[in-house]
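Handoff note, outgoing to incoming analyst
You'll be picking up this chain. Sequence as last confirmed:
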Amino acid sequence: MTRGPAPKPNAVRRNAHPGAQELAPDVQPGRELPKALGITSGGGKRFWRTWSQAPQTATWVATDWAELEITTKLVDEFFKGDTKLAGEIRQRVAKWGATVEDRNRLRMKIEDPENEPENEAPAGGSSEAQITDEELYKMLSQ
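Most recent structure output, in case you need it:
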């Protein structure tokens, strides 16, 4: 859910923010996961791949990529069982616009030319998603 009341249907927005960003929904080429990070969990590798190809990365500079490296290391430890890191990871990804609410707060909009939901899963699901579910189930059941 987003914060505040919904805008009126035909309202003219006079308070346009000069720093607002409109991002194309295109998948970015991404970067290779640095081997020096020593990421071993499947969750850490998926996290890197997801974020390195996200539309937000089109505008990233070196410091943003360094932040992604640090956060990926935290995610790797999270998937190895250190669940205390969940709050820190959530705070970090919120600064990049991880959820719809985060993107609204950051005045970030990802264009959707076909007006389809962003997170629509393909029919039948993927085996990678099932592996993620199994990993999370095992980790949280301990």
